Amino acid sequence: MQLDKFYILGVTHKDLTLKEREAFIKGGPKKIMESLVENGVVKGYVLLETCLRVEIYMESENIEFVKEKFNIGPLFVKKSGIEAVKYLFDVVCGFNSIIKGEDSILSQVRNSFLNGLEEKHTTKTLNVIFNKAIEVGKKFRYKSQVSKNAMSLEAIALKFIKGHFENLADKRIFIVGTGEMAVAILNIFTRNNINNIVMTNRSRIRVLELKEKYDIDIVDFEDRYSEVEKSDIIISATSAPHTVLLEKEIKQLNLEREKIFLDLAVPRDIDLCIEAYPNINLYNLDHLWDVVRENEENRERLLKEYRYILEDQIKNLLKYCEYKGELKCKTS
Predict the structure, then answer these.
(1) Can you tell me the distance from the alpha carbon of 177 to that of 182, in angstroms, rounded to the nearest whole number?
(2) Residue 316: HSE in the Cβ half-sphere, 13 Å Cα cutoff
(3) Residue 329 annotated to the active site
(4) Which of 28, 31, 175, 304 has its CB surrounded by the most CB atoms within 10 Å?
(5) Crossing angle, helix 63-70 and helix 29-38, to 10 degrees?
(6) Could you give the domains of the chain?
(7) Which of 17-21, 40-44, 86-90, 217-221 is least confident?
(8) Which of the residues 51, 93, 321, 329 is marked catalytic?
(9) Which of 191, 193, 252, 187 lies closest to 226, judged by CA?
(10) What are the tens digits of pLDDT across the range 152-182?
């Protein structure tokens, strides 16, 4: 187990535009990593994919070969060794999130690690690092209470929509997808007594499960365009690698009434060409961040005040390395 073979490769909203991040995802990073594990260049990896970042945490003997395989430049290799561990701790504690200290990144990192364990492509090194990261993520939030009254991405989406339609009681809302983000949107809408909601997904079983739990209507995925025509607000958040709502289909609908399309997927679900239509307002993740900039001062203060928790965890990890003896830790 060697920390000096630990690398982070990937892109975030800070490095690339949404369009460029989409291109990176469409390049199939998971398939590339699987082939690198097969030929022994990479010993193990954890793939973290969110709407704002695609990062690969790996143990590798030849990072230069990995870079060549991805056909990328030096921008993409963020950190290595103990600096990579510090970066992961920052990520899991929300230091690098747009919404500082937000909770969702902790669960996303944990789920990515659990997926790696389940698929048997982690290593002893990665297991130790990620367990320490998840531990510090929980401790940091408990001690700092930075997440208290925090705005989640779904809360930001709701506030953004309310900025366009102040009264949502008479608006019909259509949610495409049943993944984590789509369900989070559904949750916050129903908690705010917004109930005129219709959902669809390729998997009818999943939609039926949500219908039982929430007071919503459902439509077959094949009938999604007829529901787009009826709806005022269309939110799409699928994990599809291709466009889900096509301009060639939408242009045939009755578009006399104003509609908001909110695309929360990466790669994007909604055809960009529909922006040309006068009654259509198309937004994506990049449009939401103005909402975030309010009331950030206190959260920045808390991050600085409680950073010592991350620094203490780094010391604990290095002590663990020293105790084990066989571990090689690159501290520079």
Answers:
(1) 6
(2) 14
(3) no
(4) 175
(5) 140
(6) 3-146+306-324 (3.30.460.30), 153-291 (3.40.50.720)
(7) 17-21
(8) 51
(9) 252
(10) 788 889 988 998 887 898 999 999 999 888 9
